[in-house]
Specification:
alpha/beta, 8-stranded mixed beta sheet, 8-stranded parallel beta barrel, 29 strands, 20% strand, globular
């Protein structure tokens, strides 16, 4: 094949090398606009795993790089006068110029044609090419030319950064956080060659402007950074090798995602690679890693499918499908890390103690979990677990340290023996709103399963408030008596506390039970629906009537009456359901609230009625018992509420007396598009907890102890609500504790023989694997 790589960075060079190794008959050119052996920037970072992959494909190049790189295991964090270090992290650092020199020399050795100082404005300059690889960077002219085909989504991130270097050597990947009169600055520092370290300085746009950095030239910016980080520089200077950039050389990071990576220009197939196709923030150092692994995978697909011209479409299709998954995973982690640094000052540096701040930093991408940290540095993690446990009232002993999820939690007069919640889950099994034997067994078994707190399903405040005819209610004494039976069982037979979630279905009511058609209207016997506005949930759904003032008063009093009954029954906590498109949620979301009175329009107006209900309930709910509010923190639909709106609502509910915000999302608008993933809703709990200063509950895709421990240890939430895993395993908490080696958790005395056997079986299985 005739292959032209436009762009002589790591992606284009390495692909040229690998394809020439695959078949020396390929005619391959790499065209670069810069001079030979010239580059800008300092060091680049990639992981040990990437090096292992490179060794499989080109041992010669890998060995040469290995001789030139600097390897380190330690991460050091400096903040608030503290210096903390952990090990076992496995990074590789190498100068960008040195890396390119190695790749250029290897390409020439194999017979790849290198063309320098040529600016390529069009792929059509190479009409004889079978394949054109657009590896021309984030500002790719080729991608721009075919924007309709590639569908690029470019977003400039808000922080500013400047890429500098220093001759001070560092023996760890170092993060230094310094507070100025206008905000926090952070330095990302790592040694990449003997005598030189990369020194990236980052800050918010607000701090950047307040310090006048937008008006400084490069020398002024460097002098400023030297003054901020004088302590760690120890008299050494900072330097820039970006003199080709005008002004101060401060940049904004461009986040790039492309809908497609391949096209055909009439003569040649064109494929994007590296930063031309995707970017990953330097916060996890994966840009070079992605570029190299793009090159490896595209070569691998040619190896699998063959290298004839007619195989190119199949190769490119497979390449894009496979790489898109891995790139999305890395970009998701990079986004988490990037967003962490964007809010590090206001959300973490000002509020968290240094120990927890460091844990939060280490797990910022959510790729490194609690147990992964144990594998990397057991001594450091166990020291942190001990610190966390002692901060939460667990005295130090010589036994296994209590993991974060099993530490106690207290709010108002409620004490929980651990931080795991059985999330509210509708069972659709009540008769006329009365919970029966099924509910006694359902709630009772989960109370015996070790969770610190369990919630009822959404309990409706009137017959018309039900989602389905099978929903539980609390509008009469018969229902109260049935619920008291359950509450008394939980209190009498377990350590668990039990809470009630009160709600009103609103526009999502009068539907079938889940297994007969989720959200579908009843075939007959429907009751009238009310909502903030006349907006049905499903296009074919029943049309609700906009609530009148009289109806708002009536429903508010129904909530009050139910809350009084709940207090008399002995529930330990009450949650007000303001999420998922139900009645109170329909007021909060602009998608469902189209009112033009004082209950519509602004955030304050949309929150007015839910706050009226909350205050009325809080007034009759016992003072020593907490109240939580469940919010949909993201509508996942255009024009709907965003996490910033949820932040505003959380502030309003906190001011009204809320103790906890239960941070869910979605289900407000039928045509929503959630971005699912591991712990995908946890960032909402993190944001509200650390910016509003209120305790939060994380919920959604939390399925193992490792998840819960990571969330709680980092201060992203105070409690973790587990839903579906508790349906599959009522004793989820007891079993997860056993899986991570915690034997001190109490099992019901009737089940103690099962505890010892369960632990023995786990030990036997672990031994068999080893």
């Amino acid at each position: 094949m005739r292959i032209v790589c436009i762009g002589g960075g790591p992606a284009g060079l390495y692909f040229g090398i690998l394809m020439k190794m695959l078949d020396p008959a390929h005619v391959i050119s790499v065209v670069e606009r810069n001079r030979p052996y010239d580059t800008f920037g300092f060091g680049v970072v990639f992981s040990d795993a990437t090096m292992d992959n490179m060794r499989k494909w080109d041992p010669v190049t890998a060995d040469t790089i290995e001789q030139a790189f600097n390897h380190w295991d330690d991460i050091e964090v400096l903040i608030k006068g503290r210096r903390m270090r952990t090990t076992g992290h496995g990074f590789v650092g190498i100068g960008r110029k040195r890396l390119l020199n190695i790749l250029q020399a290897r390409a020439e050795e194999l017979g790849v044609e290198l063309i320098f100082e040529r600016e390529v404005n069009s792929d059509l300059d190479f009409p004889d090419a079978d394949l054109i690889v657009a590896a021309d960077g984030v500002n790719s002219k080729i991608r721009t030319k075919y924007a309709d085909a590639f569908q690029p989504d470019m977003l400039m991130r808000p922080n500013r950064y400047i890429w500098l270097g220093t001759n001070r050597q560092f023996d760890a990947f170092t993060f230094d956080f310094r507070k100025t009169e206008h905000g926090w600055f952070q330095a990302h520092i790592y040694k990449f060659e003997e005598g030189t370290s990369t020194f990236i300085v980052e800050t918010t746009e607000e701090a950047f402007l307040a310090h006048g950095l937008d008006k400084m030239d490069q020398d002024g910016s460097i002098a400023f950074c030297e003054s901020v980080f004088a302590e760690i520089l120890e008299g050494h200077h900072l330097v820039s090798n970006a003199r080709h950039l005008r002004g101060s050389a401060w940049l904004s990071f461009p986040r790039l995602i492309c809908g497609k990576w391949t096209t055909f220009n009439g003569n040649s197939h064109v494929v994007l690679m590296g930063d031309a196709a995707h970017t990953a923030h330097f916060a996890i150092g994966s840009g070079t890693k992605l570029a190299l692994e793009d090159a490896i995978e595209l070569t691998n697909q040619f190896k699998q499918h063959g290298t004839a011209r007619e195989t190119i479409p199949a190769v490119l299709t497979a390449y894009e499908e496979l790489r898109r998954v891995d790139v999305a995973r890395i970009q998701n982690a990079a986004r988490n890390a990037m967003e962490w640094f964007e809010v590090v000052g206001s959300r973490y540096a000002d509020t968290l103690e240094p120990e927890q701040f460091m844990y939060s930093l280490l797990t910022r991408s959510q790729r490194i979990s609690h147990e992964n940290l144990r594998l990397r540095d057991r001594a450091w993690l166990e020291g942190y677990e001990r610190w966390f446990a002692e901060r939460n009232g667990v005295p130090a002993t010589n036994d296994r340290v209590t993991p974060p999820m099993l530490t106690p939690f207290r709010i108002r007069g409620l004490s929980l023996h651990n931080r795991i919640i059985v999330s509210p889950m509708a069972m659709y099994s009540a008769e006329e709103g009365v919970p029966g034997d099924f509910h006694l067994v359902h709630f009772g078994s989960r109370a015996l399963g070790g969770a610190g707190l369990m919630f009822t399903e959404m309990t409706c405040v009137s017959p018309e408030a039900r989602i389905t005819p099978g929903c539980c209610g609390l509008w009469n004494d018969e229902q109260a008596t049935a619920y008291k039976r359950i509450v008394d069982f939980v209190h009498g037979n377990s350590q668990a506390r039990i809470g009630i979630q009160l709600g009103h279905a609103g526009r999502k009511g009068s539907t079938r039970v889940a297994w007969e058609g989720m959200d579908e209207p009843l075939p007959d016997g429907n009751w009238p629906l009310v909502s903030a506005s006349s907006v049905p949930y499903l296009p074919e759904g029943q049309l609700p009537a906009p609530m009148t003032r009289a109806e708002m008063d009536e429903v508010r009093e129904q909530f009050v009456a139910a809350a009084k009954r709940a207090a008399g029954i002995g529930f330990d906590i009450l949650e007000l359901h303001c999420a998922h498109g139900y009645l109170l949620s329909s007021f909060l979301s602009p998608l469902t609230n189209r009112r033009d009175d004082e209950y519509g329009g602004s955030i304050e107006n949309r929150a007015r009625y839910p706050l009226e209900v909350f205050r009325a309930v809080r007034a009759v709910w016992p003072e020593d018992k907490p109240m939580s509010v469940r919010l949909s923190c993201h509508d996942w639909a255009e024009g709907g509420n965003t996490p910033e709106d949820a932040l505003a609502f959380a502030k309003l509910f906190k001011a009204a007396g809320a103790d906890l915000i239960d941070c869910s999302s979605g289900q407000v608008w039928a045509d929503d598009h959630p971005v699912y993933g591991r712990l995908y809703q946890t960032p909402f709990a993190d944001k509200i907890r650390n910016e509003v200063g209120i305790a939060t509950i994380a919920v959604g895709a939390i399925s193992e102890a490792d998840h819960a421990n990571s969330i709680i240890a980092a201060g992203r939430a105070d409690l973790c609500a587990i839903a579906r895993p508790h349906l599959a395993d009522p004793a989820w908490t007891l079993h997860e504790a056993a899986k991570i080696g915690v034997k001190s958790i109490a099992w019901p005395k009737q089940y103690l023989s099962g505890k010892s056997q369960y632990e023995a079986n786990l030990a036997r299985a672990a031994g068999a694997k080893s």
